[in-house]
Amino acid sequence: LLIMLALYSIRFGRRYYLSRPAATTRQQYRHLLDELSALGFRRREAETRTAFAHRMKAICPSLSSITQGYQAYAFGRQQNAPSSNFLSGMESAQKELQTHLPLYHRLIGSLNPVGWWRTR
Known about the structure:
64% helix
């Protein structure tokens, strides 16, 4: 029971920390990947972020533009923090997950205490 309580504490603490308004671009992107991971959608071994975004197009279409914005920022093509398109894309992604996934799937994902563990 204590182990489960610790895992849920880590999960919800991490979720709060990564989704706070002052979170960095990397943390916001990681939060979205954690959410997808908890729902059972993880990058495969040796799969690039771009390939993963393409594979997830049916469930989360805005993931492609979010990934491109994140990579442009992370690898230095874009010197400033990501634009408002990145931030609005993050909001769109949350709405798309609610739209494309049934309630029971999201409920099971929210009950998963270690969904974030294998996020890549």
